[in-house]
Amino acid sequence: MTTPSQTVGPFFGYGLPYEGGSELVPGWRPDAIRVRGRVLDGAGEPVPDALVEIWQADGSGEIPRRPGGLVRAGHDFSGFGRCPTDAAGGYWFGTVKPGPVGEGAPYIAVLVFARGLLKPVFTRLYFPEDGAAHGTDPLLAEVPAERRATLIAEREGEREYRFDIHLQGERETVFLGF
Length: 178
What we know:
By secondary structure, the protein is mainly beta. The protein has one domain (about 10-165): Sandwich (Protocatechuate 3,4-Dioxygenase, subunit A). It is built from three helices and nine strands; from the N terminus they run H-E-E-E-E-E-E-H-H-E-E-E. The radius of gyration is 16 Å and the shape is globular.
């Protein structure tokens, strides 16, 4: 017997976030970057009770395979982070820019949990300075050219990127089906 899916409700805002969940590495590290953005609905309004989760490789492209990740000692890198959105739909992560995994461009896997969704939606965040690698990325090759920009973060300074996630509408972010 299969249990049916239920929409994600506001309960997760109390049970899933944890202290330091959005800081994969401390900001003092020389390779630290900041990824921030907003989760927006189809009308462009903020989603204040969403949860954004990221999974990524480290700076050399290695996928962390160690146990743990909830408690970080300032030098460990788990490749996993979780951040609830604020009243303006905003989220942020302190992390490192991942190296390429395999033949594709460097990316961060992004999951969004939000009210009204039966299951989280999955997308990827690519980096604007990796344009040459975008041309060889197998996943980006499958995305229509006019939609690829929804997967590429905007650079905002030397070590900061902005990646807004549009759940629906004209500017809807490309989401992946699994």
